[in-house]
Design a protein that fits this description.
about 300 residues; Rossmann fold; OB fold (Dihydrolipoamide Acetyltransferase, E2P); 2 domains; 5-stranded antiparallel beta sheet; 8 helices; 18 strands; about 30% helix
């Protein structure tokens, strides 16, 4: 499978530059997550790849050739279906691509098995629940067997239970695409569960790229660390990024003074939430830790840190 290459990508709206990517290569045959906060340009980048944002100076290619509609399958943030059965909705894209009847039925049955929607094929597609609709949208993309699959926030808007179940299944479903897959998300956990490679967008610019675990475990820039869920704090010597869960109550090699805002216990997991120089910090509690009250000033320390710019 071949790489996807973007060059000279600049998108402006109402005089504001929302995306500025001089060059970016996404490795073929792998799943790349585009990770960033709201407004960072993630969906715009996906639309550029799909040809939905057109500027003459832009160039998007797959294997050195321009990307065409037939090359890709796009799963949008919101499910859009005709007022017909799920099977009819899945079949439409295949008929438009000239797939013969027998193969259409086989592809639909195969995709329904992978995504576990066989029992929904005769249901009205516009009356599905959120989780069912997500599965059908994924099956529709799977049916196309395109070399390039684009997933825009595929788990957005789902309730917590449905989100967790589909997240568990999504790596297997993505593997079934057998394609170059590009996933947009604002969730670090989703990105690391699903993707091989990671691109971090901040303010429309690529601030980090590489293998997902390497990017996540070795942030070099404060803005990237924040996107990845690290707590960024200034010390007299340098700015450091503290990994999630790496703060503890009490003294240590790298100490901070924290003002307690509240203590919480959710599903048996206790933590204290406070502020260090205005930065919100979450500190997990163990059975031996003393009770903390709002307004208390306590000493905390970081068990692991990374220096960032």
């Amino acid at each position: 499978m071949t790489d996807v290459t973007l060059e000279h990508v600049r998108v402006a709206r109402e005089g504001r530059l929302v995306l500025d990517v001089p060059t970016l290569t996404l490795r073929g045959g792998r799943t790349t997550a585009i990770l960033g906060p709201n407004g960072s340009g993630k969906t715009t980048l996906l639309r550029v790849i799909a040809g939905l944002e057109s500027e003459r100076t832009m160039s998007v290619s797959i294997g050195g050739s321009p990307v065409h509609t037939r090359d890709l399958a796009y799963v949008f943030q919101e499910d859009v279906f005709l007022r017909e059965s799920v099977r009819a909705n899945l079949e439409l894209g295949l008929r438009l691509r000239g797939i013969a009847s027998a193969e259409r039925h086989q592809r639909i049955d195969d995709a329904a098995g992978v995504v576990a929607i066989g029992h929904l094929l005769d249901r009205r597609a516009d009356r599905l629940s959120g989780g069912e609709g997500r599965r059908v949208s994924l099956a529709r993309a799977l049916c196309l067997r395109a070399p390039l699959v684009l997933l825009d926030e595929p788990l957005a808007g789902l309730d917590e239970g449905t989100h967790a179940r589909l997240l568990d299944e999504l790596p297997r479903i993505v593997a079934a695409f057998d394609a170059t897959t590009i996933l947009v998300t604002h969730s670090r956990d989703e990105a690391l569960r699903i993707a091989d490679d990671l691109v971090v967008l901040v303010d429309g610019r690529v601030r980090a790229r590489g293998e997902a675990r390497d990017v996540a475990e070795h942030p070099r820039v404060a803005a990237v660390a924040e996107v990845l869920g690290y707590t960024v704090l200034a010390t007299p010597a340098q700015t450091v990024a503290v990994p999630p869960g790496a703060m503890r109550l009490g003294g240590g090699r790298l100490e901070f003074s924290m003002i307690v805002d509240r203590a919480t216990n959710v599903a048996g997991v206790s933590e204290v939430v406070g502020r260090i120089a205005g930065v919100v910090v979450r500190v997990p509690l163990t059975d031996g830790d003393a009770r903390q009250n709002p307004g208390d000033r306590v000493t905390v320390h970081a068990t692991r840190v990374y220096g960032v710019e």
